[in-house]
Amino acid sequence: MLKFVVRRVLWTIPIILLVIFMTFLMMRAIKGSPFRKSERAVPPAVLENLNRKFGLDKPWYRQYFQYVENVATLDLGPSLVLRNQDVNSIVKEHFPISAELGGLAMLLAIVVGVPLGILAALRANKVTDYLLMLFANLGFAVPSFLVATLFIYFFAAKLGWFPTNGWGSASSKVLPVVALSLGPLTYFARIVRGQMLETLQQDYVRTAKAKGLRWRRIVTVHVLRNSLIPAVTAAGPLLGFLVTGSFIIENIFAIPGIGRYYVTSVSGRDYSTVMGITVLLAILIIVANLVVDILYGYLDPRTREQRT
Amino acid sequence: MVLNPQEESLRETVVSRESEELRFEAGAALRQSSLWRDALRRFTHNRGALIAMVAFLIMLLYVVVTPWIVPYDPNNVDFSASYLTPTWSHPFGTDQFGRDLFLRTALGGRISIGIGFAATVAIMVIGILYGAISGFVGGWLDNGMMRILDALYGLPYLPFAIITLAIFGTVNFWTMVVALTVASWFTTARVMRGQIITLKENDYVRSARAIGARWNRILFRHLLPNTLGLVIVFVFLELPGVVLGEAFLSFLGLGINPPNASWGSLAQDGYTQYLSHPHIIVIPSVAIAWLILSAFFIADGLRDALDPRTEGAA
Q1: What percent of chain B has pLDDT over 70?
Q2: CATH class as words, domain A95-257
Q3: Does any CB of chain B come closer than 8 Å to the CB of residue A154?
């Protein structure tokens, strides 16, 4: 187990370097300097100074290594557009909001989605199952911007139960969290249902039934335990899901999170901010995948060999 | 989707009938297409998949035919006709400029579905190439290539799509296709590699190798054609994600330039007026959901039809 963990952790390092490198190359490929778009023409001498100040005059590989070094010391560099802010402070200001939004949505997705999946599997091919799967398929297909807008229309504008936008009081968090969690929630429900149905057909379940165990005990001891472990792996990809969803949800509810800031930074050509946020999100997801893998290897030793 | 017992028995009768036919035609040449005829029969016996197929074709028909038969100009501004609610002459109503939404939704569908299909093809090509090379060559190359995939797996495509659009500087049909492809091919590549590795162990591949077939013959004659079923399933699995991705980008204001519009930009239009005219955002969103759901169930039916052993989890 230790060997598995160590190898898996060590592999993560070149991977993170690779992702930073890809992001770095992409950012360099964007045309147009951030300093040229201001109304007045910037004198060449000033431009040169600016380039020097932000290290843009150095060769690309020096910039890359400098950047990796900075990331390693948790310094994402200065913002190229906002003069008095660096990327760290931007992240510090906006990231906790996104993290709270995503965390609450994930929690809701697990707390509601997993039981729904279990229920659907136990009632397979009955009315409950069909209704739940209809809901799950709609949750998967209906774009989150429609769900969010309809929530605002009915629960905020018409009924006035919740504020239409913003992020502060507990009641302002209800609509965005529910809207964001709907996709992951139905995803969990589908995964858990599929796993349960597969487990229910295993020989050991039939054996347990044959030796006369109570159904409740079979489900809790044999079926649930073996079905929920694979559902753990769903948590990795789901994080990417949440990031994408939060871009939309933060925009609609005017939540000052990192996703909303990202879109403005791209159009403002604030390279270092865009890159900082991208690298941060990527590392977050890579680390989440790492944790999921290790957790999975711990829960199901059979997978250690394949996944080293 | 798990099948109910009746469908299972239905399937068995189909299979046994098929083998009887085969015995009957024993003298005739064995047709290679029997696998596909088998699959077609299974697909047409799957009610859900058939309904999905019909829904999908209706959407294509609506998108293709409407612009030819509707007597309006999609970009004609007429403020006297703005914000009409749905009537017979304007089945989906009109937007703030008095443009007919029945027509604009169809035109938006052309763009959304067009981008969706083009990006799906690009994803398939890259995924198949990457997966086939990795799985076929094997060894350290496979190891390295998979390690990279493992890492990229689960990265959100949206930031990378946004950066790609920024690199191009302009948003049009093809830059959108590239942006949506950049960070979306990982799953396909992974699955293709798995398939190639499984196929490589088959006896016919070993025999081909034993009689001295070269690698290109094995790859192009024996391995790739046998992934075709999976490729078709994956086209319908990838399409929904790409269409949704395009809609998200357009909704964030990073889509195709006006007056052209995709479903995503139509929805964004509607979002700005959701309080007074909620139907404007509902129409393109329902179109997106319609397409995604039908593609999803087609993929599900195809998977069951092409490979009856895996009644895959939904």
Answers
A1: 82
A2: mainly alpha
A3: no
